[in-house]
Amino acid sequence: MLSSSSTTVKNLLLKKRLCFLLKLVCYVSSVFIFCEFLIYYVVIFQCRWPEVKGGAHMSEKETSTSVLKAIILADTHLLGEIKGHWLDKLRREWQMERSFQTALWLLEPDIVFILGDVFDEGKWSLPQAWADDVRRFQKMFKFPASTELVVVVGNHDIGFHYEMTTYKVNRFGKVFNFTSGKLITRKGINFVLVNSVAMEGDGCTLCRTTEAKLVALSHKLNCSQQKPNNSNRRCSDVEKLPASEPILLQHYPLYRKSDAECTGEDSASPEEKNIPFKEKYDVLSQEASQKLIWWFHPRLILSGHTHSACEVLHAGKIPEVSVPSFSWRNRNNPSFIMGSITPTDFSLQKCFLPYESRVFTIYCAAGALLVILILAHFQLLTPPFYFAQRLISKHKAV
Q: Where is coiled-coil annotated (predicted)?
């Protein structure tokens, strides 16, 4: 009889322990799933496409056909085999993959632009390492047939100017269908893709080729914007493009002294803002910047490279938006730009991704609560009521 009773008690204790263990597993799993998966849906779901002027007066069908929905991001810096620790790679690539795939699923953009520095070690990569980096990129940034992906070259993809070679440029171009001065036109909107690393202005072979392509493209765009009665002989045999003023997409920003005038929560830190920029390293030279403005008279310039956000006006009327890094390795608060663009207008809106500090705080709070639950379960944590009662009893005894 005693033996039977003892077995029953043991079974009950075992069931309680198993039940408690199951609750802990569910608790830990829930926190992990939220922080590593669901949080991206919660945060990106709050982002909305901006409206362009007149968009409120268009029907839904007119808006969907005339407005191009574009996502713009920059500086993903996929780690390579030289500087990339496997744990750092795993963490950062998971974060970027989940953010990108969630954004595609929730926002359904027509086109995505990545403004250079896709890879961190493209300037050094040997063929096998390059192939591995490309394979990982294609897995992370896969996209449906309804979306187009356009990638611009950056200095980490092919090296700074004096590290840049024809081999590296062609290798990048083969994977991403990029040339050093390319025009793409979507829904009557002209986008000019610039290899800003080749805008050194020193007459190197790649620099001369790039500038020649850009000059020819500039001529074609300028001829397309002229009215028929003003066209001259130089434009008579030129292929006509949509008359929309172009949008420049490049990695380096145009020349500016520093980030001192930049504002916003994702702008550079106060210590970094007043550090002067070095021409041809942090920004394009004044000469190259002026050339691009003269050649294209763009209505908008989008750039990356600095890893921080900034909005500036060139010549008092041409806006440039520097897009911050998409990687948590470079920022606590990565983001991307959502653009609603028409042939005559555009509207931009920033979409922030989960703050890493907040994710870390959730993990710390959940860990502290987990420790408290375990201590309380094994009666190793004195309840506040009994602790207070013991203090009162000791006081009375004295």
A: none
Residues 136 and 271 in one domain: yes
Burial class (CB in 10 A: 0-12, 13-18, 19+), 189: buried
- Residue 6 belongs to a domain: yes
Q: What is the pLDDT of residue 387?
A: 53
Q: How many domains does the chain have?
A: 2
Q: Is residue 133 part of a domain?
A: yes
DSSP letter at 230 equals G
Q: Which of 215, 279, 287 is nearest to 252 (CA)?
A: 279
Give residue-wise pLDDT tens across range 278-331: 999 999 999 999 999 999 999 999 999 999 999 999 988 999 999 999 999 999
Residues 29 and 172 in one domain: no
In this predicted structure, what is the pLDDT of residue 312?
95
Burial class (CB in 10 A: 0-12, 13-18, 19+), 184: middle
Write down the pLDDT at residue 289.
96
Query: Domain of 268?
Result: 47-354
pLDDT digit string (tens) for 102-124? 999 999 999 999 999 999 999 99
Same domain, yes or no: 213 and 151: yes
C-beta of residue 245 within 8 angstroms of C-beta of residue 222: no
**What CATH code is carried by the domain that includes residue 331?**
3.60.21.10
Determine contact, residues 120/79, Cβ cutoff 8 Å.
yes
